[in-house]
Amino acid sequence: MSGTLVRGVCAVAVAGAVLAPGPAGAVPGPPDGEPSVAGLLAELRGLYRRAEEATEAYNATAEELRERRAQAETLAGELAAARGSLYGSRMAAGRLAREQYRGHSDLSPYLRLLLARDPQHALDQGHVVLRAARNRMAAVDRLTGDEQKADALATKARAALDERMRLAAAQQRDRDAVRGRLAEVEELLASLTPGQLAELSRLEEAGTAVAQRAFMASGALSSVGRAPSKAGGEAVAYALRQIGKPYVWGAEGPESFDCSGLTSQAWAHAGRKIPRTSQQQWASLPKVPMDRLRPGDLVVYFPKATHVALYLGKGQVVQAPRPGARVKVSPIAANPVLGAVRPDPEAKAMTGYRPPPLPRGATAGDDTGNDDG
Q1: Residue numbers of the domain that contains 308
Q2: Residue 244: is it exposed, middle or buried by C-beta count within 10 angstroms (0-12/13-18/19+)?
């Protein structure tokens, strides 16, 4: 991506007072006809936010498509087994038909009994014939059942294939939407001067600092440090090992991540499967009050739950911020907080927990983005 991506996370948004320069220390007004730096920052945030929404839509479609593929493979296996059983039933039915044809007689069982030299033997033979008849009926029933089962599975398999094709088309549309949004970001950044980029970075850093101070002063977070569960501690350790890896939309590691790719993989490596996207994580995982946060919990951002990070403790999160940035440790209030969820609410907190040391450069430098010239 060309241009220097300004420092920020996904679609960083702070209070309007932070965005709008005040009388004291205000950013110099732009020449006539040019947007203000604050206006450019607001526009950039909007573009990043829409890109993140498109990314999560892409991820949700990709996850559903993956599940449908697994279902289709299961159906294909069941259909193959049903057709094999049906083939066997048809072969058995054919043998019975041939045997019945060869053993056909115009005499009724009663006449055969009267004419028999040994009536008792004829009666015993009758029991054998009756048992054979029952076996033939059972074979016919199996044939009928196998035909019905194969037909039903074939119908399901065709429906699954149709659904896969629909989802694949939707995934392509979502992918194109993400690329379009990111192209808008790149176009805006390419149009800015070095001075505007530097001012954008300064204004964004100042806004994040103000938002973090206000969030911590509000008492939303408990002043008591909490310990994670065993799995939560493992998720934190995994996420910290990914620091410095680039954000790539739709990525789940191991070389790159998007925001929910990082959180879902962190918990997967801790032994617990959670939904793939931030919106699914917010919708399906148990909510936890902010003043009860413990390391490993997921902090979800924006009204549509389009961004997520992993809580570290002491007002910090580890996250994959946005395209052009790298996995890093950030203030919890770098984005507008929607709430938090806990993947393992039933698990007890660890005793004697010691937070892992942060890798060098975890909180600075890696969030600036890249410059490909």
Answers
A1: 222-341
A2: middle
Contact 327, 262 (CB under 8 A): yes
Tell me, yes or no, whether 194 lies in a domain: no
Residues of the chain with pLDDT under 70: 1-35, 37, 72, 75, 79, 82-147, 149-150, 153, 364-373
Kindly write down the DSSP assignment for every residue of 343-366, as one continuous string. S-TTSPBPSS--PPPPPTTTTTTT
* 0.70 surpassed by pTM: no
> pLDDT tens digits, residue range 256-284?
999 999 999 999 999 999 999 999 999 99
The answer on 229 and 164 residing in a single domain is no
Same domain, 135 and 42: yes
pLDDT value of position 150: 67
State whether residue 101 is helix, strand or coil: helix
Give how many domains the chain has, as a whole number: 2
> 């009928």: which residue's tokens?
144
Residues 6+ apart with CB under 8 A from 157: 72, 75, 76, 79
Place of tokens 């029991």: 127
* Residues 290 and 155 reside in one and the same domain: no
CB 157 within 8 A of CB 72: yes
- Residue-level pLDDT at 86: 58
For residues 57 and 116, state if they share a domain.
Answer: yes
What pLDDT sits at residue 310? 98
| pLDDT tens column, 212-271 | 999 999 999 987 789 999 999 999 999 999 999 999 988 999 999 999 999 999 999 999
CB crowding 275-295: b at 16 or more within 10 Å, else e: bbbbbbbbeebeebebeebbb
CA dihedral 40, 317, 56, 285 (to 10 degrees): -140
* Helices vs. strands in the chain: H and E counts, helices first: 8, 5
Rounded (10°) CA dihedral 60, 242, 178, 311: 60
Claim to verify: residue 231 and residue 174 sit in the same structural domain: no
Pairing of strands 337-341, 307-313: unpaired
Co-location of 129 and 42 in the same domain: yes
